[in-house]
């Protein structure tokens, strides 16, 4: 996700979905031999100690947020946002009563219980954080957290975040449990997501109406419809979510994370974040360099704010090109043996859906939904190529069932409702990043066609942030000055967060060191590459970062 959102894609979707698929299908949890059997940490009520005299309070940055350096300001940023929109009725999102002051939040009772949906001994708790960190006397939000003890738990908590924005982290804790010995793996649902106080927008019918809009408009009528859809969606989210939309920035999430660190008894934050999770980690390191432990930031987002930063759709195009190159030379793919011809065939198929969508039950597989479905498989490495070839071949024959299913996974659509991610993703993205206004949307979108000639025209664009009802956060320049070594990991063929972003993140962070995987797929640390695992283990266990320029294959 770029800091200045040009929003050249329609997907109100999950940057982390490919990672989630990988967690279940990629065989990532190698684990390590344990010297001791897993022994659960303390369960039941725990009351943390207050910070020592003179120490900063958890969640309070060493330097006030307003005093941090900013990226260069955009002219007329967020010019068309509906900041004066008045909600209709009472929001359905409700808040908790304040605990009173920051000391009360830092010493709140954490009541750990066995997670009812876990069969590996995970423990669950809910903590409270101020809705507005600058006004702790106001309402509070709930933060759901889950930990899985390992070995003797001597290394303390290792926090994990799967990205998004908008995806909860509890399942990631379960899936990574046991991977790093004697670390308790801890995942939390950031505010706005999952089982925490989360964003709510429209119902199934309302959200379907927006998802089914022609996201690749060909005329003024279709552009107008897409604009109106962006306005409607923004208003539905404000009507249902109320003031929550004003307090779900990554700065808020990082401050919550610092509170969690304290409540779980860790002097330093040890952390593995993937995709948008790298933005959470980098923001934490900017605000709290004194409590940074070992941070692994994998599949980095752009933190430079540069107009030259690659668009996400360029990553999808690269991944599609890698797929069609494989397809042309593999006996496992029946789409043809000439890469250019395969590319043309896919492009023609997607473009044809603009006029004639495929019927799937009582629904339609549109041009943008089909492209979004293809994108789901491009999050994975080449192990997903055979399945993608079969799904595309089905589409060619008029069967869009599996492409629509994949698009639904990307968009968070269930059988009778949309999951929170469908709403939390755009809400958090718009809260973090500036936009250039509605007039820039079509031009910005078409500017991506040259570098992404298949995916960009067909995935389409949107006016989601342009008509949002909340302003964006200050655009902090993230350098993490004073933090110890931070390990940044990038994959050369990453589909969702282009490799160049890992390079620029490692350069901009004062203590960033880049580790490269020469391969495909979104994210490397949660995969099974032994070279990556060796370097990450050495860093998390001993603080030993790889030499600058290290490449794994």
TrEMBL record:
Belongs to the peptidase S33 family. Pfam families: Abhydrolase_4 (PF08386). One of its GO terms (molecular function) is hydrolase activity. InterPro entries: AB_hydrolase_fold, Pept_S33_TAP-like_C, Serine_prot/Carboxylest_S33. The keyword Hydrolase applies. Residues 459-552 form the Peptidase S33 tripeptidyl aminopeptidase-like C-terminal domain. Residues 31-61 are annotated as: Disordered. Gene3D superfamilies: alpha/beta hydrolase (3.40.50.1820). This is Alpha/beta hydrolase. It comes from the Bacteria. Keywords: Hydrolase, Signal.
